[in-house]
Design a protein that fits this description.
- There is one protein chain.
- This protein has helices at 53-66, 79-92, 103-111, 162-167, 172-176, 187-195, 233-239, 256-271, 285-290, 304-307, 346-356, 359-366, 376-388, 394-401, 414-429, 434-449; strands at 41-47, 70-76, 98-102, 141-142, 145-146, 149-161, 197-198, 214-216, 296-300, 316-319, 330-339, 372-373, 405-407.
- It is of the alpha+beta class and 450 residues long.
- The strands form three sheets. Strands 1, 2, 3, 6, 9, 10, 11, 12 and 13 form a nine-stranded mixed β-sheet that branches.
- β4 and β5 form a beta hairpin.
């Protein structure tokens, strides 16, 4: 049975400064008692993932059948627009009763008074917290206040074009054993060079490789991960020994390990193994890989079903993230169901969020094989469903069980810290000096959290 073992010594920044985001906490209706006590009510629930919408709609149907006075209406909006809509609707007092939250934003939204205390509104009554995969429920305890019940957990792996890898002379076992040390001489670098291909059929290991005529890049980088590096540089930097926080608790974005990692990215761009920043496709990660424009990339487990679908023209496979001198570290995260503090229907909202966090709902979502539910029995069902459907990725379970993970951090001024670090990463991707750019960004980000 899979047991999720989070990285020890997890550090989460607790900052008292208020965010500049206009997320005005609305008190109107804050003590609402819609539901069984107040007659029929409709709960508005928001999420961002279109793939997950059907499975939560199924949960909503089952929930409403058992609670005839409560209807759940689910609205799905793409990631960027989702957070913008929350900001706008909270400010106008028209936010959703419940919505999906991620670890990175939980402190910010909690500090602004937007998240209800689930203990106070009865959403945790009777919940067996031992049923959850270790670490998922703890992510939503903010200064000892329970603001969310976990829905799932995820982990990052490496997806690659299996045919291209075979032609380059690599087996699945070879790829699972790749190592990264940032020198450009390691086996991971050799692999992505071998996966690159120019118009004359040469890979980047050949002296004849034409970096100006690349038809398939060796690796697709992810440049829009904010301060986390979740789908790229963070995993490689951690393998070198980097962490988000220094030993004294200060931010660590100017550390030598991260400098080395991002300088390696620039070297790969210069060699033609990765696209230049201004040439990076606007298609998105999966469509770019599906089009055969890159041989490999780092991606989250929530994408596994897409890459392994029978409709794919390219045969993709998944492997572990590369190991480094400090070990192997794959980014992990978890989502939760939360209740808006301004909801006029808190009693019904509490019951819905409790149901979302229950084995009944999460065992049902596990059957879809899209996510790893936070309830352990749901994860077991998801693993079995993926294996049955030919979409099993044992590497996810192996890395998680071995504790080869790192948890994404959360800041009270999350949006501002994200902007500072994201801008620095984009500048580096475009060729800016890595060391000085990170030093300036780290200083600016530290000023936000002091």
């Amino acid at each position: 049975m899979l047991r999720f073992a989070p990285t020890t010594g997890l550090k989460v920044a607790a900052i008292s400064a208020a965010s500049v985001l206009a997320l005005t906490a609305c008190s109107s209706g804050g003590d609402g008692d819609g539901g069984s006590a107040g007659g029929p009510v409709t709960i508005e629930h928001w999420l961002w993932d279109d793939l997950q919408r059907p499975m939560y709609e199924a949960c909503a149907t089952a929930f409403s059948e058992a609670n005839e006075d409560i209807t759940v209406n689910i609205t799905q909006t793409a990631w960027a627009q989702y957070w913008q809509n929350l900001t706008t609707n909270f400010a106008s007092g028209t936010g959703p009763d419940t919505f999906t939250m991620t670890v990175q934003y939980v402190r910010e939204y909690s500090s602004l008074g937007q998240l209800a205390d689930l203990d106070e509104i009865g959403a945790t009554e009777g919940v067996d917290f031992d049923s959850y995969v270790a670490g998922t429920a703890e992510n939503y305890l903010v200064d000892d206040t329970r603001v969310g019940l976990p829905l799932d957990w995820d982990i990052v792996g490496m997806v690659y074009d299996e045919t291209a890898a075979t032609e380059a002379g690599y087996t699945h076992e070879d790829i699972n054993a790749l190592e990264f040390d940032g020198t450009g001489q390691d086996s991971f670098t050799e692999f992505i060079k071998a996966m690159a291909l120019d118009g004359n059929g040469n890979n980047a290991l050949s002296p004849e490789f034409d970096a100006g005529n690349v038809v398939r890049f060796g690796m697709l980088p992810e440049w829009a991960d904010g301060f986390t590096g979740q789908n790229g540089w963070g995993n490689l930097a951690y393998a070198l020994g980097w962490e988000f926080f220094a030993e004294d608790g200060s931010l660590n974005f100017d550390a030598p390990e991260l400098v080395t990692t991002l300088e390696w990215y620039q070297d790969m761009i210069d060699l033609g193994v990765m696209q230049t920043f201004d040439e990076t496709s606007t298609l998105g990660q999966h469509p770019t890989m599906e089009a055969g424009l890159a041989g490999t990339t780092l991606a989250g487990s929530w994408n596994a079903s897409n890459y392994l679908a029978d409709t794919q023209e390219i045969d993709f496979a998944w492997a572990k993230v590369p190991e480094g001198p400090a070990g192997r570290f794959a980014a992990t995260n978890s989502l939760a169901g939360v209740v808006w503090n301004g909801s006029p229907n808190k009693e019904a909202a509490a019951e819905w969020v409790k149901y979302l966090g229950s084995p009944e709902c999460q065992e049902a979502t596990g059957e879809y094989g899209i996510v790893f539910p936070a309830v352990q029995s749901g994860t077991d069902i998801a693993v079995e469903a993926n294996e049955t459907n030919g979409a099993g990725v044992p590497e996810f379970a192996e890395m998680a069980s071995a504790g080869e993970t790192f948890q994404l951090p959360s800041f009270t001024r999350n949006a501002e810290v994200r902007t500072v670090i994201q801008d620095a990463i984009w500048a580096i991707a475009a060729g800016a000096d890595v060391e000085s750019t990170l030093a300036t960004a780290n200083e600016a980000a530290q000023a936000l959290v002091d």
